[in-house]
Amino acid sequence: MRHFKVKAMVQSLDISAITGQQTDAEPSKRSKPSALRRTLQALRQRLTKRNRPKPPDWFLEKFSNTTNTDKIGKGCPAMEDAALSSEIRGTSVLCNRLSVDPTLQSHYRWLAIVSLAVLYNIIFVVGRAVFWEINKSAPAVWYTLDYLCDFIYLLDTLVHMHEGFLDQGLLVRDAFRLRRHYFHTKGWYLDVLSMVPTDLAYIWWPPETCSSLYLPCPVIVRLNRLLRVNRLWEWFDRTETATGYPNAFRICKVVLAILVLIHWNACMYFAISYEIGFSSDSWVYNLNGTRNNTLQRQYIYSFYWSTLTLTTIGETPTPENDVEYLFVVADFLAGVLIFATIVGNIGSMISNMNVARVEFQNRMDGVKQYMAFRRVGHELEARVIRWFAYTWSQSGALDEERVLAALPDKLKAEIAIQVHMDTLKQVRIFHDTEPGLLEALVLKLKLQVFSPGDYICRKGDVGKEMYIVKRGKLSVVGDDGITVLATLGAGSVFGEVSVLEIAGNRTGNRRTANVRSLGYSDLFCLAKRDLWETLADYPEARSTLTQRGCQLLRKDGLLDEQIFSDSQRVHDSIEGGIEKLELSVENLNMRLARLLAEYTASQAKIKQRLAKLEMNGGPGTWRLECEPQTRGRSGRLYSLQPKRRPRSRPDATAKSGEAAKQNTL
């Protein structure tokens, strides 16, 4: 007991030292918190504030129908459906430790590390196999980097073996299935070959033997490490998909490919110079002299020669023997084919980067030509050009409908809600609205840009749209166009009652004021036709919006209660009649279905009876069964119908009489 008391006291003292609170063990000591305690408290508050999740947005959560699928397969808790648990989370507790989700950011970072290891082998294995001075400069560093890359390859094989894959839309995390799937692909051959310990050749071929007299260097046995290049392409593809600047990344990737090709060709030139003999003629590398014998001079000259040759510029020493001629011809052909393709790709990338600008410029040129052909005034033409300039500066003339056309409606609605969430919060009639209705309406919002001095609506116009101010300033002016009655800013909404067509509205669904744009203003427009087409599928939401609009009209004293009540009665009577018609149509459909079922059943019975009769005795039996019969004393059946005597044919009787006479004669 004493031991537990001491332990509890020590724990309480530790807690008090961290939190700055005084425990019951020392009630008399109430000193001020020390600097260390204050520092710990501030650090703890900052950490908890940083890690504290942001408060959920009720508006966004209400209209978001996405499911947090990231939690699927994160653990292995017990589930009611054992089969589904096995499919999603695996069959053992160890499954999550041996499974990797390829969609996570951590997996992407791991691919970046593997790509660096692959790129190291692509550049330095080939270079060190030819330029012997590289190996002599820092052998310990090269050994460390080589075996570090080998260790990364080994870990990447384990990661690649346990990467999850989709089966019927579900991420498979079962370790056994992941390994089976991995060994059924062709990638595991390359992974195994890239890890073959070819470095064992160092035992009888030491790296110290590398010099100008013995090439290539022993490091060439590590060329199998280049077989892991597929992971580098995978990282390139994921980066190109995820980056916000895909064209710039493509250009960087092409430039990297060009540099690698020039590097390999430079190494090939230096190796051929060794085979022919350094300084043997003017074409090969001249190794004479202290300056030419340095690593810097050797690589820079080889890289320079490779660049001139592959880019087909020439201006290099003329070959002097057949091997040199063949190598130069092969380099020229490779340069023409490879670099022509690369330059063409770069040109297409650069042109694609300016596609939006070119299309926008073509539209603007077409409008300017039209205005010049129709002799539009210079003031209006200047306003149109300024509108084009503002549109390009704000959004780059982005066609949202064309960009999002490939997405399904649900994802487009999610994106629209995320983008226009702050704007939709300002619409009072949309509060407490069904999520499906808002998802349908948010796709029908159209962005309109107004120039300075443009009238959005005038007093007395029929209200066919409602507007939501996204950016800019609007002024409500009087009939003279000078008196400013009010100013509307971002988030303001007007015209929402006129699109509801509420009976009894004293304004008659017409605009009650003039609204003019002070500067350039971006407004979201919702047409009345789009609203009512959507409300046709949501009758409850339609009644809710109507009631909310009536409340707004009552608040301003613009609702005629008598007309509204009469219209409601008429509407209710019409709806009642429609409901009765629907019920009667439903009853008729039920009766028709029942009669059809009875008719089908009777037809089936008749067909069965006919089939039985045909199988029992054929048509003669059927005729006897149909005739009325009686049974005699002997038990024999007699027909009650009189027997019909066959009529004799006169021609046949005459012929038979003539034949009899001839026989008699």
Describe this entry's structure for a reader.
The protein has 665 residues and is an alpha+beta fold. It is built from 24 helices and 12 strands. It is extended and about 110 Å long. Mean pLDDT is 77; it is low at 1-32 and 65-96. It is a multi-pass membrane protein. Pfam families: CLZ, cNMP_binding, Ion_trans.
CATH class of the largest domain: Mainly Beta
Specify the biggest β-sheet. Answer: 4 strands, antiparallel
| Number of domain units | 4
Question: Within the CATH hierarchy, at the fold level, what is the topology of the largest domain?
Answer: Jelly Rolls
Strand elements, count = 12
Descriptive keywords:
4-stranded antiparallel sheet, Ion_trans_dom, Jelly Rolls, alpha+beta, 4 domains, protein-containing complex binding, intracellularly cAMP-activated cation channel activity, 665 residues, transmembrane
Provide a compact summary of the structure:
The chain crosses the membrane at residues 110-131, 254-272, 325-347. This protein has 665 residues and is an alpha+beta fold.
Topology summary:
Layout: H1 2-19, H2 35-51, H3 58-62, H4 82-89, H5 105-130, H6 132-137, H7 139-161, E1 165-167, E2 170-172, H8 175-183, H9 187-194, H10 229-242, H11 246-276, H12 295-310, H13 322-353, H14 355-373, H15 378-395, H16 400-403, H17 409-419, H18 421-424, H19 435-442, E3 446-450, E4 455-457, E5 465-471, E6 474-477, E7 484-488, E8 493-494, E9 514-517, E10 521-527, H20 528-535, H21 539-556, H22 561-616, H23 618-626, E11 629-631, E12 637-639, H24 650-664
Antiparallel strand pairs: 1-2, 3-10, 4-9, 5-8, 5-10, 6-7, 6-9, 11-12
Domain Cyclic nucleotide-binding: 429-535
InterPro entries: CLZ_dom (IPR032406), CNG_cation_channel (IPR050866), cNMP-bd_CS (IPR018488), cNMP-bd_dom (IPR000595), cNMP-bd_dom_sf (IPR018490), Ion_trans_dom (IPR005821), RmlC-like_jellyroll (IPR014710)
Membrane topology: Multi-pass membrane protein
